[in-house]
Design the sequence.
């Protein structure tokens, strides 16, 4: 029997505030005329900021809550902050393009907040069933968000594919939970790691435990889109409205990585040796396929989708490096990845123009001379994605590779370095097109709305801050990596 | 008392049938039904384990799974309706405008 | 001192920022004033720092100052720290001096071109990165400068971006040097692994205390990997292919980046890491042999080039080879001496070539020049001085520095007669192709196209004055290290001695004594002068006296000539061996093997879809069809499960 | 053989047969009917395993709610065209083989690992007051937060369903 204490409530305060604001948005929605819906967006942004403040409050009373099913530790608070950052950036970047696409409805903001709630619960729960519920919340919200342009055939198709395949993968994840439950009688990760901690290994019949872990891996691998579970990614990223893609490519992915870390480097770390090679092989496949396929793309959104797949591969390298080495670099990488990817997608969303007409690479021809500042931002994102020194992308990769080398994963590191060299080629294609070709960029449309400017400024400053002076943040990730159960 | 292995075997077969149907059916609604089959297989496993562990948690989980199935059904069918309005078709093979 | 050091770095950065942000709104005069003040200030502070350094009580011990901790990750730590010793001193002064002059020259050269502010912003940024490279106190910071100069070079090569060849050349430069950078990165990682630090001072101190022979394996590996980076950056075999193409950029860029400074970064890095190479004689031998072969190879290509800038580019590659020979035989100071003199005369050559280009509206083909000395006296004179210098005519700077290397190849700790002879023959080739260029451009009858003839004129003072200054340095720079044999004090050599002494001592003690007796220094000089003279004579005979001779000769040696004109077909071979297989390999591998074999046979009854002509794995995987997506997900699950069950 | 066994085997047979029917029927309505049969028989198995509450949920929520929703949608959309098309794609052999392999793998895992399960002594009725009371207490005490999260989930589903299915917004 659980009695709810005040501390329990404080420890889910960020999620509660977000959910409350989502509900309020729905309440206010009918009272606002169509032209004023952006107010709801600002209101949601306020909610995100409030949740951020609440996170600070939560950090003063860390601990377990609700019968050990919620853990408000540094690890989960780190991820909550990351999700809030992603949500805030997406909100800032979406106002204008929602208006432009004529889909500026309050539901968008409500669903975005709900998805964030789900992600926060994924990161903060130590109970598999609650992780699953969080996963479902964020999934259902993003299924709908992907299809938010209801009149648009591509958006529909994206939503449908994402939904069907997502549910399919979820079934695998659930089956994994069922087997874990059957093996141990519990689904609480803390209890599990305590049980495993005694023996270090599974009892006889460990085979089925591997099966359980793998089934869960399949479900999560789908969300983070590792090969061969990535197949949905390019289509959905291409079809979904670009601000949604920005959110989708970072938020649910980071949340799924948080769960992967908690399960595979946390609770099952001592039993994970059998899964190690799965991570290893997944990382190699993902990096190779993501980068090679990106070479062939002509659509910028699709190119970024494959690049997102490739980046998942690098994060997997960090996970393969193991608990002691890999966790902090993974956290660092995910943050950097969030900044640059959200920035890039938001910018592409803006440049694509009404109906997202201009998303081919050629549409950016000569952009560097018509819109120098915009092009410079995009170039900065590309440089960072390519891992160019002085940008955060470089250190993100560097720390991952370093962790891998320390763990003796030389082969994996070599593949990672080589594929990242390949990746330079396609990122630079965009830069070359912008700066080294004459032409009238189709994509150079209206001036940047200032909300988007703020979002871009945050991303660019973040990229260069972390690229020039990563030390402090690295210490933070080291702190956040420690309390993994 | 039915051996646990039998229940699990049933659950595994049901899961496999759902997965197979998901892959080779053409009608989107039927494909979606196959997911329900898979979720039922999961529930069967939960309840079986719950019974043999003498532990109620499994039943709770099964309950949540059913809740999730309901939520998925609501959203999924809404998406299907939206898609149908746009394209007038529910054959999965008609939805391949994005590729490579 | 620490403030002074920073002050060397900051003006170009400030200039780049100012011009980059506001340049478009400034008038040209302001842009050029800002741009030229920056290297001027840097030069001033570099001299001031040199003076202060000379009066430090600790001199000649290196001065290191850490400004703040830049990266810290567990044991790995890199500061933003600068390192200043006599080698840094020489480099900063040479770099700032040459770049100051080139900035001045560019004012005139770029007047008529678009993107004036952009050009100067890049140029200033380049200087900042180059100075970061030479003053960095650890490998990661050096790498920042290393990558930074690469980026600027990439931007400047592609400066005339509307020309496809220009942007292609930029890309080529970027990708080829990246290959080298992978080596550099791996080298630094390995070094960190070996010593647990990447800080110069720490690593070098450890190395000096290390008994010879210890850690030989990993140090050799580090040395080779770092040298791979130098091979890319300094355009040595086999990664030299980008440099000739880089001549697509504006000529001052070719002078500054692709002759005087950036390409020498590799030499500087090897010299900076001397303590490491002292423990890795094998790596050093590779450096020397690569350098020597490159020097010879590039010189032979230069023999048959008709494009003036490309000829100079191959000459640069060849001279860089000399510098590596100098370092490789263990005489690091000789390599650096040549680096410095080369910076003067090669930038002079390029700037003079730019002046010619200016007069001829961009014409670069030597066959369409001739007789220019009448119209362009200053340019001709300065080009002549530079030619004399590079050919090793006694009394000019190139003679002394090249002679130091040749002598080193003979007597140095790792000297070898074969290196010596190849280098000497190359000296003869150098004299030949340089005089050939001189004669074809400035002497004989005019072959200038009639339409251009009236426009031929001497360039303005903005351009000729820097030429004269550089000419002055090209003559006198050699006298800082007059060899003993000529009664000089080898001052430069002795000045750098404290830096390299320990390494040289170590190398001399471990290397096998040179076989046979070494010829005296005077004999070495005599031989090289003889070869240079022969080169000059041949050029004179062929291109001034009997102008019909060369075409008859090329008739006779048609095959060889074609081979040289086409640069040994290296680009074609690379294209054929590497670029095309890579491009096609993905198709063949993914499509033929993975796709057609595994997927087609297994997954789909091929009939309908196998007809798709250029299908590959991706197209099959990403068919857009949800069922095939589901199949992939299912297959993935089945495969992973199968693995885990069978393991 | 005792009654529970007989009931179990009968119900599993019905489950499997109807499940096969679900994935092979040409007409979507038939598939739904067969799915309802499957769900009923799975519910029956719940009953034999003393999960009375779940049986009730299965029947009321699943069959009564979800399946009716399915039927509505099938009636709403016009599937006549689809009836005339082939219902399986060319991949069906591959799919079947893969699914069979999946089943075999999971089955093999159970076979290899069945002694790994921690099995308690099975008691006929786990708790006094009946299954429903026990589940209810657990839900609203131990799993209170999960129930709250599930409510958020349902809210999301509601908002999402409305926005996707509404004919025209504003």
Sequence:
């Amino acid at each position: 029997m659980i009695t709810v204490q005040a501390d329990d409530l404080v420890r889910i305060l960020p999620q509660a505030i977000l959910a409350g604001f989502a509900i309020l948005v729905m309440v206010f929605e009918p009272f606002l005329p169509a032209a004023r819906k952006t107010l709801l967006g600002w209101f949601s942004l306020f909610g995100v900021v409030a949740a951020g403040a609440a996170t600070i409050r939560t950090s003063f009373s860390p601990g377990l809550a609700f019968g050990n099913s919620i853990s408000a530790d540094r690890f989960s608070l780190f991820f909550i902050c990351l999700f809030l950052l992603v949500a805030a950036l997406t909100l800032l970047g979406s106002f204008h393009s929602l208006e432009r696409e004529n889909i500026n409805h309050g539901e968008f903001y409500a669903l975005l907040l709900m998805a964030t709630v789900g992600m926060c619960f994924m990161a903060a729960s130590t109970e598999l069933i609650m992780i699953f519920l969080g996963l479902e919340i964020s999934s259902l919200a993003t299924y709908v968000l992907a299809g938010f342009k209801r009149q648009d055939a591509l958006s529909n198709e994206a939503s449908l594919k994402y939904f069907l395949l997502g549910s399919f993968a979820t079934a695998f994840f659930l089956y994994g939970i069922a087997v874990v439950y059957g093996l141990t009688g519990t689904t609480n990760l803390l209890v599990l790691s305590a049980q495993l901690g005694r023996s270090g290994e599974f009892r006889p019949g460990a085979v089925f435990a591997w099966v359980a872990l793998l089934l869960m891996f399949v479900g999560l691998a789908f969300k983070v889109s590792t090969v061969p579970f990535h197949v949905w990614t390019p289509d959905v990223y291409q079809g979904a409205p670009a601000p949604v893609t920005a959110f989708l490519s970072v938020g649910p992915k980071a949340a799924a990585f948080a769960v992967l870390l908690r399960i595979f480097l946390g609770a099952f770390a001592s039993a994970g040796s059998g899964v190690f090679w799965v991570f290893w092989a997944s990382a190699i496949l993902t990096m190779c396929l993501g980068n090679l396929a990106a070479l062939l793309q002509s659509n910028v959104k699709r190119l970024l989708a494959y690049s997102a797949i490739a980046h998942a591969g690098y994060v997997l390298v960090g996970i393969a490096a193991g608990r002691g080495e890999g966790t902090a670099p993974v956290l660092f990488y995910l943050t950097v990845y969030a900044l640059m990817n959200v920035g890039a997608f938001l910018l592409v969303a803006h440049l694509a123009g009404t109906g997202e007409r201009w998303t081919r690479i050629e549409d950016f021809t000569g952009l560097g001379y018509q819109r120098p500042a915009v092009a410079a931002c995009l170039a900065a994102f590309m440089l960072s994605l390519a891992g160019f020194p002085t940008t955060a992308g470089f250190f993100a990769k560097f720390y991952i590779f370093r962790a891998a080398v320390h763990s003796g994963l030389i082969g994996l590191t070599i593949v990672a370095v080589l594929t990242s060299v390949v990746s330079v080629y396609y990122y630079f294609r965009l830069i070359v097109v912008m700066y080294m070709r004459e032409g009238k960029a189709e994509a150079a449309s209206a001036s940047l709305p200032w909300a988007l400017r703020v979002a871009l400024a945050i991303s660019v400053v973040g990229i260069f801050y972390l690229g020039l002076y990563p030390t402090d943040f690295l210490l933070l990730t080291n702190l956040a990596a420690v309390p993994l159960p | 008392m039915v051996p646990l292995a039998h229940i699990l075997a049933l659950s595994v077969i049901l899961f496999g049938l759902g997965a197979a149907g998901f892959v080779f059916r053409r009608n989107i609604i039927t494909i979606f039904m196959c997911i329900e089959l898979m979720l039922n297989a999961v529930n069967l496993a939960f309840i079986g384990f719950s019974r043999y562990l003498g532990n109620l948690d499994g039943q709770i989980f099964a309950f949540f799974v059913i809740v999730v199935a309901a939520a998925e059904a609501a959203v999924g069918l809404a998406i299907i309706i939206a898609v149908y309005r746009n394209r007038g078709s529910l054959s999965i093979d008609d939805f391949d405008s994005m590729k490579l | 001192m620490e403030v002074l050091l920073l002050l060397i770095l900051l003006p170009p950065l400030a200039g780049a920022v100012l011009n980059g942000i506001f340049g478009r709104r400034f008038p040209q005069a302001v842009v050029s004033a800002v741009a030229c003040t920056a290297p001027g200030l840097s030069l001033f502070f570099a001299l001031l720092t040199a003076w202060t350094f000379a009066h430090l009580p600790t001199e000649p011990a290196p001065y290191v100052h850490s400004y703040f901790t830049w990266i810290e990750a567990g044991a790995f730590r890199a500061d933003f720290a600068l390192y200043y010793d006599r080698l840094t001193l020489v480099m900063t002064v040479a770099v700032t001096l040459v770049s100051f002059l080139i900035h001045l020259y560019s004012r005139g050269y770029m007047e008529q071109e678009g993107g004036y502010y952009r050009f100067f912003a890049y140029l200033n940024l380049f200087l900042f990165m180059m100075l970061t490279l030479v003053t960095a106190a650890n490998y990661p910071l050096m790498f920042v400068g290393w990558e930074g100069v690469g980026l600027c070079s990439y931007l400047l090569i592609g400066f005339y971006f509307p020309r496809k060849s220009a942007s292609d050349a930029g890309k080529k430069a970027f990708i080829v040097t990246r290959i080298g950078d992978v080596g550099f990165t791996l080298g630094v990682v390995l070094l960190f692994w070996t010593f647990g630090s990447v800080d110069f001072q720490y690593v070098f101190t450890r190395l000096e205390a290390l008994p010879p022979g210890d850690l030989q394996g990993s140090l050799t590996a580090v040395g080779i990997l770092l040298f791979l980076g130098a091979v890319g950056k300094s355009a040595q075999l086999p990664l030299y292919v980008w440099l000739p193409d880089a001549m697509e950029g504006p000529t001052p860029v070719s002078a500054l980046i692709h002759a005087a400074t950036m390409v020498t970064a590799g030499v500087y890095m090897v010299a900076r890491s001397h303590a490491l190479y002292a423990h890795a004689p094998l790596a050093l031998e590779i450096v020397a042999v690569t350098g020597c072969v490159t020097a010879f190879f590039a010189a032979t290509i230069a023999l048959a080039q008709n494009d003036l800038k490309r000829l100079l580019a191959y000459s640069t590659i060849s001279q860089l080879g000399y510098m590596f020979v100098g370092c490789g035989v263990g005489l690091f100071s000789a390599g650096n001496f040549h680096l410095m003199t080369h910076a003067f005369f090669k930038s002079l050559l390029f700037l003079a070539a730019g002046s010619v280009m200016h007069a001829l509206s961009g014409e670069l083909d030597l066959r369409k020049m001739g007789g220019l000395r009448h119209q362009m006296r200053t340019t001709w004179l300065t080009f002549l001085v530079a030619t004399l210098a590079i050919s090793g005519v006694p009394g000019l700077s190139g003679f002394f520095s090249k002679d130091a290397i040749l002598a080193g190849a003979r007597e140095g700790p790792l000297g070898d007669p074969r290196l010596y002879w190849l280098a000497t023959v190359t000296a003869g080739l150098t004299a030949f192709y340089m005089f050939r260029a001189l004669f074809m451009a400035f002497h004989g009858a005019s072959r200038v196209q009639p339409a251009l003839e009236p426009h031929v004129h001497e360039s303005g003072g903005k351009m000729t004055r820097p030429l004269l200054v550089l000419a002055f340095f090209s003559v006198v720079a050699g006298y800082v290290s007059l060899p003993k044999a000529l009664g000089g004090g080898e001052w430069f050599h002795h000045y750098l001695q404290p830096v390299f002494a320990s390494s040289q001592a170590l190398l001399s003690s471990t290397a096998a004594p040179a076989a046979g007796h070494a010829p005296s220094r005077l004999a070495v000089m005599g031989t090289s002068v003889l070869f240079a003279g022969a080169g000059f004579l041949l050029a004179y005979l062929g291109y001034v006296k009997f102008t019909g001779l060369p075409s008859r000769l090329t008739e006779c040696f048609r095959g060889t000539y074609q081979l040289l004109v086409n640069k040994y077909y290296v680009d074609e071979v690379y294209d054929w061996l590497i670029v095309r297989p890579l491009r096609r390999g993905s198709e063949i591998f993914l499509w033929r093997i993975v796709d057609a074999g595994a997927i087609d046979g297994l997954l789909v009854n091929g009939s309908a879809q196998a007809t798709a002509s250029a299908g590959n794995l991706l197209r099959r995987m990403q068919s857009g069809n949800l069922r095939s997506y589901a199949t992939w997900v299912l297959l993935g699950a089945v495969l992973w499960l199968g693995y885990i069950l069978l393991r | 053989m005792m009654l529970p066994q007989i009931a179990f085997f009968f119900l599993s047979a019905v489950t499997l047969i109807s499940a096969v029917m679900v994935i092979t029927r040409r007409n979507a309505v038939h598939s739904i009917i067969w799915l309802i049969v499957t769900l009923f028989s799975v519910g029956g198995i719940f009953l034999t395993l003393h999960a009375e509450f779940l049986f009730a949920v299965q029947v009321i929520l699943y069959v009564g709610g979800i399946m009716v929703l399915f039927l509505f949608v099938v009636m709403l959309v016009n599937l006549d065209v689809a009836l005339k098309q082939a219902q399986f794609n060319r991949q069906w052999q591959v799919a079947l083989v893969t699914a069979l392999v999946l089943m075999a793998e999971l089955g093999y895992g159970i076979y290899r690992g069945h002694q790994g399960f921690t099995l308690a002594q099975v008691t006929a009725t786990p708790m006094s007051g009946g299954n429903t009371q026990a589940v209810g207490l657990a839900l609203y005490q131990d799993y209170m937060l999960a129930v709250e999260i599930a409510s958020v989930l349902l809210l999301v589903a509601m908002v999402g369903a409305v926005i996707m299915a509404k004919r025209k917004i504003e």
